[in-house]
Amino acid sequence: MRIITGKAKGKKLISPDGYDVTRPTLDRVKQSIFNILQNNLNNDTVVLDLFAGTGSLGLEACSRGAKITYLCDRNDVIFSYLKKNIENLGFENSAFAIKGEFDANLGRFKGKQKFDLIFVDPPYNTDYVEKSINLIDELEILDKNGIIVTKISTSERKFIESKNINLVDYRKYGNTTVCFYRYKENLNE
Description:
This protein has helices at 27-37, 56-63, 76-89, 102-107, 128-139; strands at 46-49, 68-73, 95-99, 115-120, 142-153, 165-173, 176-183. The protein is an alpha/beta fold and 189 residues long. The relative contact order is 0.15.
């Protein structure tokens, strides 16, 4: 795993050997995601990487100029690697690790922070994507022009929508499907 471009281009991310809790995003998938998001990522962008693992997606956003990136994970071992990756890349002033369950982490931001970009990349074949999108909607922490990016197993083929947030695009990359969500009132943008 490495950072593809930006301030930390080419720097490697560390992860525990033989640890199957994380499912790193392949470079080609990550590159495709960020190509799609390029107009939505600048030095004012506030990012949440909800199931960050060792930080591949959130730290890539940070490298590409995001103003602030919050990276969340609940696993003790993975969390220690996440913090080391933030430090190794020199992003201590713009990337912040938060330990805890995803729903508690989302709740921390209610009324305090809205996000321009939220990555939801939980373990495959769980209900975490659906719960996360519904909670993001309920807590109103997605900026009105914000985007949610999820990764699911292509075999799942279950696209989630909440009361106010709809699927606007999806792309298949082998056994991974990347989904993009926005508020309903912004579907034509």
